[in-house]
Amino acid sequence: MKQRIAILTCILGLLLSHGGIAGATDHKQALDRESTANTTIQVVNEYSMLMTLKEVDDAALYSAGYTVDQINVIKSEGVDAFVVSELMERAKLSDEILFQKGYTEEEIEELRSLDGDESISELSSLAASVTIYNSKNSFFYDSNRNLTFFVVNVTWTWNKEPIVHATDILGAGWAGNYQLTNYLNSYNNQFTLNCVGNGYSIAPKTATARLTSCNINAGKFDIAMRHSPYPNDNDYFYWVKSGSGMVELSIYGFNQNAEFIAKYGHTSLGISPSISTGGSSLSFGFNIDTFTPASGAVYGLNPETRYMSTATDAQ
User: Fold this and answer.
1) Closest CA to 42 of 216, 149, 170
2) How far apart are CA 84 and CA 100, in angstroms?
3) Is the overall model pTM greater than 0.85, yes or no?
4) What pLDDT does residue 277 have?
């Protein structure tokens, strides 16, 4: 039984990391976006991605990198059963712990009413979702340095504790020959991770992670979702609920256009998905799950000109 649960957990995590197959079928099921030239919002729901994958034909799943055994699990009721059983286990917890996990009073009542025969499609209100924000901070040409800067705020937050706690990823992609730099502020490209407990109430804590280049037009950092155990209590642990940071990109000379996108990847198996980019589109894993500039990027157009002699002038 334990082995079966472990296998399903790994498969579930793998499914979440490959949610982009939804783009080949019904992208709206898996991703809700509101976007402008200056801000984009992506909301990714754990369960809706699983529901979408169930409707993808075997050949498409196989070409995306899934094994025959994994496809069999996707098509079976095993994933539904695992999700329902996990939620029923959570229903046994105290209200205090469930509030800590992010559930509302109404959702706790719904948890308590589960009988085990539900399908994933009936559990959307109990699903964990992660929301990712990309927002342009500034776009300007520094005539003193002869550099064009594009600065973007990136944040993400989970509304509830997800089922799988493994290695997640924050990836970023951009167009042109921009590079990650720290001319304006030494803290740029450093992200604050906000960690909360998954058991009884405990004070939150923070950690940091730095976005580093992993390709000509890409950067990333890994996130250990199961961050650390409670002090003197290994039965519970901190998990990374949210994070935020400011990304600084710069390019030599005066540049009139900039594009940037950051994306959150929720995965398992202890393997972070690889990143590839095409312009400012961003792909995870087997070159799927691609967000194109029109539906995910923030833009810089026609930068203002500033004269900045020191880093403090940038504030």
Assistant:
1) 170
2) 20
3) no
4) 46
